[in-house]
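Friendly challenge for the regulars: who can give me the C-alpha cells for this chain first? No prize, just bragging rights.
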Amino acid sequence: MPRFITVVPVVVLLGSAALAQPAKPPPVAPKPPAAPSPMKLAAERTQATLQQHPPGRPEDVKTQEALLAALYDVISGPAGKARDWQRFRSLFYPGAQLVPVNRTKPGGLPGVAPITPDDYVVWGEAYFKTHGFFEKEAHRQVYGYGDLVNVLSAYEAREAPEGAVLTKGVNNIQLIFDGQRWWVLHLSWTDEKAAGAPVPATFTRK
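First reply, four minutes later:
Bragging rights claimed.
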C-alpha cells in the first residue's frame, strides 16, 4: 500500500505537466511579395520601348532648334512624295501624344482628340499622296526650366513652298533633354479657324 500511494501522485503530476505545455502556434504563412511600384513598371516599359525605338539622326536631336527644324521638315513636301516616317517617329519620346485642339460643337465630336505618332503616320500616308503640304515656323516663344522646355511655335501652312497661306496657327511643343539628346514629349496645336481668333501679333514674323 505505501508503495502504491507514492506512485499515484507521480503519475498525476506527470499528466498535469503534460497538459500544461502550451500548444505550438500554427506555422505563419509567408507574406506575398509586394506589388511592383507603378512608377517602376512604367520605367521598365519605357526602357524596353526605347530599345526598339528608331534612333534619331544626330543632327536632328542635338539641340532644341535642330529638333524643331526636323519636326517641320519631315512632314513637309509635295503631293505624292513619301515622308520619312521613321525619321518622324524618332523625334518623339515613347508615349508622346499629338493633340489637335478644336472648338467643340453641340452634338459634335470632342474638341480635343489625342493621337499617337503612329496614328499621324496612318493619316499622313493617305493625305500626302494627294495633297502638298509645307508647314513653316513664323515665330516662337520658348520657356524652360532644367531639361524641360515649352515652345509656342507659330506656323503657316501652304500647299507649295511659295504658295498662298492656307492656315495659320500655333503649335504648343513640349521638349525634353534626357542627358544625351532632345525629344518631343508632347505636341498640341490649333489654328485660327479652330481658335476663332487670329494668331496674336506677338507671333508676327520679325
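The chain has a mean pLDDT of 88. The beta strands are 92-100, 134-145, 148-158, 165-177, 182-191. Your move, everyone else.
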